[in-house]
Amino acid sequence: VTEYGKALAPTETPIPGLVIWDLPVHGDSRGWFKENWQRKKMTAAGLADFGPVQNNISFNDAVGTTRGIHAEPWDKWVSVATGRIFGAWVDLREGPSFGAVFTAELDPSKAIFVPRGVGNSYQTLEPDTAYTYLVNDHWSPEAQYTFLNLADETAAIAWPIPLDQAELSAKDAAHPRLADVTPVPPKKVLVLGAGGQLGRALRAEFGEAPYIEYADRAELDLTAPGLDTARHWRDYDVIINAAAYTAVDRAETAEGRVDAWAANVTGVGALARVAAANGITLVHVSSDYVFDGTKPGAYAEDDPMAPLGVYGQSKAAGDAVVATVPRHYIVRTSWVIGEGGNFVRTMASLAERGIDPTVVGDQVGRLTFTTDLARGIRHLLDTRAAYGVYNLTGTGDPTSWAEVARRVFELTGHDPARVTPVSTDDYFASAAGPVAPRPRNSVLETAKIEATGFTPADAGTSLSAYLQERSA
Ligand SMILES: NC(=O)c1ccc[n+]([C@@H]2O[C@H](COP(=O)([O-])OP(=O)(O)OC[C@H]3O[C@@H](n4cnc5c(N)ncnc54)[C@H](OP(=O)(O)O)[C@@H]3O)[C@@H](O)[C@H]2O)c1
Fold first, then answer.
1. Using CA atoms, how far apart are residues 420 and 374, in angstroms rounded to an integer?
2. 459 — alpha (psi -120 to 50), left (phi > 0) or beta?
3. Cα torsion angle, 22, 24, 27, 30, sign
4. Whose CA is nearest to atom 24 of ligand 1?
5. pLDDT (tens digit, 9 = 90+) per residue, 165-219?
6. 245 Cβ closer than 6 Å to some ligand 1 atom
7. DSSP character string of 337-367
């Protein structure tokens, strides 16, 4: 008989992520009642906030009815409404725990969280057993199942009722042995804006794997309609958004303003809805331009946003939207240098071509190399750092753009005195066309990400290495 009055409590099993729970069941002379799934209490007690969308019940007449072993492409929360089962779970996911087995009896006072990719099976121990489970994706005929034979010798499940006396389907009897099972690959990671500076560095950092997908603008445009159906989002664990409208000055024009908001706000909003609806971790990259640059010291993550121009405003609005996604990292960076056209390359090229530039000397910040930015993003994901906003820039003494230019001249063997510093006001007075206002102080405080165990590279050291690599 079902035990009444247990405290809600999880117990880990030898299969990572497979967690068995005691459920409180309240009984009296009428029968019993239980909260079979209660999001608030259960997530507070440590259950994954797995977002169920479908509830299934299978009713089993006879003792010894045996079903499985099926690994499904979604998470399950399994219990029994009446009766009792012997449950057996086999890890069929790619990785070191492939083949691990756990068995337990479940009655209405027990439930088990079965992560996607863990094979699930059971045998009924009482007649008229109702087995019930919540899943976090809608069943579909395209869903890829992975199966293991109930009699697999490696898993060696000790079925209480021998399989030759049990009720099972012909299909279940024909499933493969463990050696012939293709392990379930992990959920996918999608990198957006893969053609940009940061996107290319992310590809170098994360590499090529079957579950990593890179999409440039042609493959996935944030401003195109139908983002919510552009992928089967339930198959994704992480989206890294390196896509953005980044033409800071063009954003000040009538057309540019529309484009900046379409990508950086409306498009990011659509992405945020996808992430929130599918339990996806959204990594979004933001900018020092969300600040006005009037603060005397370095900007902390929680300093109030006060963007000056259209680009900065669009990035700030994007941050506000992404902050509503339950699993999000907003990575704020500054003065990004990677592959492709950028300030450092321009200066190196001017130096070589004998051109003496005038460069703004009153905007202060720190360079950030895309290799470092990509490494930091990976660190946040790998260490499952607390969700939220993180500044991530190169470290070391802040400098002006003119000082960066001089250093580039010096490091490439040219006379740094050829660089003439000018004020922002003078520089932009002479500019043709619209120019965005820029923060005078772009320095971001990196203590928060450092506290997670990540050490950003020194901007000056990275600059030397970057120029060396360029000339090599
Ligand atoms: N660069 C900096 O100094 C700096 C400073 C602070 C923060 N950030 C932030 O860092 C992130 C990465 O910047 P980055 O320097 O790598 O910029 P980037 O080189 O300009 O890359 C941005 C990429 O996004 C793509 N893109 C633009 N609109 C899109 C859309 N609607 N849908 C899909 N893709 C789209 C662009 O494609 P197209 O080229 O085809 O338009 C480009 O490949 C951005 O969030 C940016 O705001 C940059």
1. 33
2. alpha
3. negative
4. 243
5. 999 999 999 999 999 999 999 999 999 999 999 999 999 999 999 999 999 999 9
6. yes
7. E-SSS-HHHHHHHHHHHT---EEE-S-EE--
Please state the pTM of the whole predicted model. Answer: 0.89
Contact 169, 218 (CB under 8 A): no
Residue listed under structure tokens 């299978």: 58
DSSP string, 193-217: STTSHHHHHHHHHH---TTEEEE-T
Ligand 1 pocket test target in 205, 240, 336, 366 with most atoms within 8 Å of CB = 336
The residues pairing with 191 across neighbouring beta strands, listed in sequence order, are 214, 240
Q: Does any ligand 1 atom lie closer than 6 A to the CB of residue 267? A: yes
243 C-beta closer than 6 A to ligand 1: yes
**Is there a catalytic annotation at residue 70?**
yes
Parts of the chain with a pLDDT under 70: none
Indicate if ligand 1 lies below 6 Å from the C-beta of 377: no
Q: Which amino acid is at 223?
A: T
Return the structure tokens found at 80. 């029994």
Q: Which atom of ligand 1 is nearest to the CA of 340?
A: 19
The pLDDT value recorded for residue 142 is 86
- Report the pLDDT value the prediction gives residue 433, as an integer from 0 to 100: 86
The token pair at 156 is 């060696």
Q: For 295-416, where are the alpha helices, taking DSSP H only? A: 310-322, 343-353, 370-382, 401-411
As a whole number of angstroms, the distance between CA 251 and CA 436 comes to 8
CA of residue 217 to ligand 1 center, whole Å? 10
CA distances from 201 to 77, 124, 214 (A): 39, 53, 11
Q: Which of 191, 241, 246 to mutate to test the pocket of ligand 1 (most atoms within 8 A of CB)?
A: 246
CB neighbours of 355 closer than 8 A, spacing ≥ 6? Answer: none
Query: What is the tens place of the pLDDT at every residue in 352-395?
Result: 999 999 999 999 999 999 999 999 999 999 999 999 999 999 99
Largest CA distance in the chain: 94
Q: Is 312 helix (H, G, I), strand (E, B) or coil?
A: helix
- DSSP H or E run through 82: strand 76-82
The average confidence (pLDDT) of the chain is 96
**284 has catalytic annotation:** no
Q: Is 403 exposed, middle or buried (0-12, 13-18, 19+ CB in 10 A)?
A: middle
Ligand 1 centroid to residue 360 C-alpha, Å: 23
Active-site hit among 122, 131, 133, 311: 133
Q: Determine the pLDDT at residue 105.
A: 98
